[in-house]
Design a protein that fits this description.
binds 8-OXO-2'-deoxyguanosine-5'-triphosphate, Nucleoside Triphosphate Pyrophosphohydrolase, globular, DNA repair, seven-stranded mixed β-sheet
Length: about 140
């Protein structure tokens, strides 16, 4: 079956929105990415749906419950083996805390969206999501 990923493993990033703001997370590892900001998430496990993986990763990493809303159009290669998909998600419960993989979190209003140093591959999806927040 052609899932459009050319055999690469999908990393799902969550564009978590609440009260008109977007959640950004600062990575602690690996060294090449530490200190840069991302849409929190992680690798989809074999047999797992991408939206399920998103719910699992955000529960593990941030202690929150989210509802995936829709995939952001596009995909962004990370490495030879990994490709980034982004889903918009709504915060259902909990206040995000940097439990794993991150050392700082920020809720960004649309006019602050590019105040943080996003990983390069995340920028197009962040721009698309910010447009939806502006209404
Ligand atoms: N989660 C996430 N990872 C990203 C983004 N942009 C980006 O380049 N990456 C890279 C960083 C990592 O090399 C890889 C995702 O790995 P991860 O460490 O977050 O995933 P994981 O929780 O499943 O990790 P693991 O312990 O199973 O290795 O993708 C992004 O927006 N979100």
């Amino acid at each position: 079956m052609d899932d459009g990923t050319n055999g690469r493993r999908v990393v799902v990033g969550g564009a978590v929105c609440d009260k008109g703001r977007l959640l950004a997370a600062r990575r602690t590892a690996p060294p090449a990415l530490a200190g840069r900001w991302e849409l929190p998430g992680g690798k989809v496990e074999p047999g797992e749906r991408v939206d399920e993986a998103l719910v699992r990763e955000l529960r593990e990493e941030l202690g929150i419950e989210v509802e995936p809303v829709a995939r952001v159009a596009g995909e962004w290669p990370l490495t030879q083996e990994l490709v980034l998909h982004v889903w918009r998600a709504r915060l259902l419960a909990g206040a995000p805390r940097p439990l794993q993989d991150h050392d700082e979190l920020r809720w960004l209003a649309p006019d602050e969206a590019f105040d943080v140093d996003w990983l390069d591959q995340d920028r197009p999806a962040v721009a698309a999501v910010v447009e939806t927040l502006k209404g």
